[in-house]
Batch of 4 targets.
Target 1
Amino acid sequence: MIDQFLRHPGIFLLSVLLALIPTIVWGYYFYQKNTVNKKTALVTFLAGTLSVVPVLFYQFSWSHIPDISIHYYIPQLIQSPGWYTIGFFVVVSEIIAFIATLVSALAVIVVSLVTWTKGVVGNVFRAVTEEDSNFKIVGLLIAIFATLVVYSGYTAAEALIITVSLATLEEFVKHLVVRFVDDNRLKSIDDAIEYSILVGLGFAFAENIFYFFSAWNGGAFVQIFIFRSILSVFAHVFFSGVFGYFYGMAHFATPIYHEEVHKNRHLFIRMIHKIVHMKGSVLFHEEKMMEGLLIATLLHSIFNYLLQLNQIVFVVPFLFIGFFVLSYLIDKKEDHKEFKFVSEERTTGKIHEMSVDY
């Protein structure tokens, strides 16, 4: 691919310009609904374009570094089932998620240094140490799902594993960018949604460049351009926006949870809180993070699998419904409420007064 870029720089530049068209159109539609800081929005978008790097590295590993690719171990899972094989499979999945975290952190730090954006480097280190359990959970989810699919005897097991593992990794990486860049800049749940949408746009923009460049000499370029400009770009916006909603809930877990307690909601969390002696707001935070990851991954996996089956007739209504769901979340009155306090430490539930850093 790199050799092709060097041989055809003009086509590559044209692919970039074409990829910008749907990005600008969708970006204008969603960005005009919010007044987020312009520089922060630009940095978030640029970091989002680099969020494809961990995913590309993972795909590169399939053929060049098979020892860290879960697909390399699928035949072993089928041929030699056992606790040792499953355990090794889980460890590899954890390594993948850990590497994705490190690469994402490095990409965000590079963008922040180039754009002279203050506060990001410190936020990256705080996020990595504070949310270190997230990459472990992501790796575990990939491994568990893949193992269940393999042992279910599903005939298209490998295709389904690839679909779900990539969807999980992509949604996890896109969220990491929002967490690293914008965590200390959020004032409301709507901010979390909007910044997540910007990362989704950045990811789709970078992905479209590769697709447009690769399909340039093919006979179906126009169809690919239309499909990816309308459906694929919005798909990333939709999945990221949904995750952003739950991330916003988790970000303001302490004040939101206290409001929920007053309304006698989340009785289950309060019961677990008494059993495990963990603060209810911390449990609420973890619950919302897992909801966001699982729902975004599920939606992404459905989209990818419908594409693999070439069921475009179902993709269109699926995303049509997604458009109204995302619009509802953006317009929801409660999501625009600005909080004066935010969780200082997700693992303890401590809070401090908001000080948004631009």
Note: The chain has one domain: 2-353.
Target 2
Amino acid sequence: MTPQSKKWMRRVAKPWRLVFVGYVLAMTLATHWPSLELGTEAQPAPDKILHMLAFGGFALLLWRTRWLGAAWMAGPVAIAWAALDEVTQALPILQRTFSWQDMFASGLGVLLAVVWIWALGAIGGPANRARLAFGAYVLGDQFVRLRTWIVGLAAAGIGAVVMALVMWMLLGRAFGFPYYSVLATLIVAGVLGAVAATHLTLAAMYRRQASALKGRQPCFECGGSCCDVAFDEFGRGRCPSCDARIHRGQWREPMDLPLTAALRGAGSAALTAIGLFFVAVFIYGIVLGLSDRLTVAGHLLHLWQRLTPDMQVALDLAGIALILGVAVRVYRFRQAQLHDRQHVQCRCCHHDLRGTPLEGGLGRCGECGTPFVRFPHQPQAVSRRD
């Protein structure tokens, strides 16, 4: 890695590192506050759900710091920190207790974070990975600006409050739901509302930032300008600052897939999610039905019944999140296939493009005029690092 690339990586990672350090300090203070009790004996707080969300967030932020060599390493490091955090709570001076269920809920959150890191990770061939590199560069360039964090946090707060209020009106005391169920639902609804509002807000900012990149043509490795690079007949070139491989088509703003193609991908993901859900229900039914006949099934059911209510809810939510993570990966895989075949078949009208003339790796569909890029069929054609 060249000095220019290292400088760019540090610049992009610095905000995440600051946020991560602040998050860890705040979380550690909350988990080690002496004699801290959430809720009351009559109205307990969904402590296990909070553990799952807190350490899932820990793993995600640790991944974004780029301190680790590989994304999967965020899992073991977060598990080790969760264990240390839980064990040190048993120190007599803190007047708190160690809980295996708390530790299991924390590990469950880390597992979900790792699954979603995998679900949203790099996938596909040169064309799709160039599209992902484009998006990663835009997001990295966005988050080095304080304005992005302020707007994102404001959107998250508004989304959380609005969604929580909606769920309160739907599942409030007027419908006879117990306090515990309502509180757990409000927490989950608030998180979902925050994620949705932040995503929509940042997506609008992303589109403006992506359009501005067309003229700058930055290298995705070091951020240096590539406007004066001479490309060969296949559209290949080298960054003048860090000598990374670049392609003429990597700055083409990623195009949304046609609605029919997007729906096909969404359909595959939905069928996958439904199939996994019914498999889970089927396995649970088998365990329930054989609990009187098989010792193992009986032990599993007995173990489930011994869990606290918030731990049972946390496991239910984790199962749903795992299924959705796999479904998202399937959907992105379908998208990657379409983008990687954009030079073979038009994504809009399905016209055969194999005989279409190219200029520097770029071309247009002769039927509908949709632009496409043909990347050289070699590994790492766009970037030396995925």
Note: The first helix runs from residue 3 to 31.
Target 3
Amino acid sequence: MSQDTLINMECTVCKRRNYQTKKNKKIIKGRLELKKFCKFCKQSVAHKETK
């Protein structure tokens, strides 16, 4: 059984949930944070993992 699970990514500026991605919980223990393009802010900003 795979440890990959779907997570939602939330923009740190406008607080909208823009992306869904996979995360392997065995490898990455903490919350994931990636710099992605937000179509609402129209710029590349940090997106954090939500519950």
Note: The two ends are 22 Å apart (CA to CA).
Target 4
Amino acid sequence: MAMMLRPILGAVIGAAIGFAMYRFVGCKTGACPLTANPWVAMMLWGLIGALAAAGK
């Protein structure tokens, strides 16, 4: 069970970073696909966080 905890925690932290990127860096015009939509930013950064946490 502990093996599953690291990627899940990494995904949650990554999603929080993605939301922070959207909120504080974001794109005002909506032309930036990665930071214009909070859901896309959270999903992308969550995936990156899960992959980073799963690696050894």
Note: The CA atoms of residues 29 and 40 lie 16 Å apart.
